[in-house]
Amino acid sequence: MGRFSQRYQNLITLLFVVIATSIITSAVVLTFSGREDNSLPPPTTKARSEEQLAVQEAAFKFGGDDNAPSWENAIINVHKKVAPAVVYIDTERTVKTNPMVPEFFREFFGPGFFDDFRGREYKQQGTGSGFLIRPDGYIVTNYHVIQNADKITVNLKGGKKYDAQVVGADRKYDLAVLKIKAKNLPYLEMGDSDRLQIGQWVVAVGNPYGLHETVTTGIISALNRSISDSKEEGYLIQTDAAINPGNSGGPLVNLKGEVIGINEAILSNAQNIGFAIPIKLLKDNLDALINEGKITHAESTVPWLGIYMQDVNEDMTEYFNLPFKTGVYVGRVVPDSPADKAGLLPQDIITQVNQQAIKSGEELAAIIQKMKIGDPVSLLVWRTDEFKKIDVILEAKPEDQR
Hints:
Layout: H1 2-32, H2 50-61, H3 70-82, E1 86-97, H4 103-109, E2 120-132, E3 138-141, H5 143-146, E4 151-155, E5 161-163, E6 165-170, E7 175-179, E8 201-206, E9 214-225, E10 236-239, E11 251-253, E12 259-266, E13 274-278, H6 279-291, E14 303-304, E15 307-311, H7 314-320, E16 328-333, H8 338-342, E17 349-353, E18 356-357, H9 361-369, E19 376-383, E20 386-393, E21 395-396
Antiparallel strand pairs: 1-2, 1-4, 2-3, 3-7, 4-5, 6-7, 8-9, 8-11, 9-10, 10-13, 11-12, 12-13, 14-21, 15-16, 16-17, 17-18, 17-19, 19-20
Helix pairs in contact: 2-3
């Protein structure tokens, strides 16, 4: 009985040791797997990308809170480097109300009825962003930010304001260079937009809705985008960094604080789809903008007439007792355009192109687009109750009309 009791006690002791060892082993495994203690770093692998290393490098290059995560430090330090050279642009332009009223409406309502609607002027305010590229006051922004502005005011970080002059501008690339009378200003370095990669982290700084020094972050979502046609290849950078009205002209920078793009546009019916002009486009044309005031583009291959038009409708046909029911009413003729040189006038009605009847302005435009620069176009025009034949020689569409 004693031996059996002793064996029984030994068996219980062995079982206890096995259970205790299993518990301790499980605790150790759980601890080193990070499930019990999240403060332990994960094991180092070769999966760490160059971009992750760039984040770490940028995070501690300028100092900062050593206790903060690397990503947090990266954004803080990019902001410290970039923000002093970002400017906020206020514009003022004179807008004149000048509705295009067809003559048949004037005859219907009587003389003088539309006089109060013409010639009125008012001041329109606008805002945008930009950034300094030289210490002597040269600033880059978008063309559409300063387009037709009578007055441009640049606001620096800290509150100083300067009147700005346009040094050079280009509508096609939506670029403009301004100049203020100031010296020893902070400025931004330009990066290399040719080396960008999809997924790369970027930071946008600007003035959305008048909220100065707004910082947003995101990635490069795509490259070589076109706003006009999503199916065609373009040159724009797509990003999901939040961009809003007022961000236009501000810098899109990498985590080193280098400008890699100029914020330009958003898709208003989407979320987090913004576009920036690659900085290479500016670098390649900067001398021309500063020294010549413009960028010389290759000659357009798009032919044009140079008219503003609207479709003839049934009301117009009945009121004037026109001998036709379709055509294109000429509302305005662009000065020095092919139509102007040929003698086409406002209120003319185009009924045929090269002896082919046309029903709409869209149809007229399609016919012209299929033709070549220098081609003659024969127009049948209704003017003062009779038909006239007007011959037009097509020309290249000017840059300011593209």
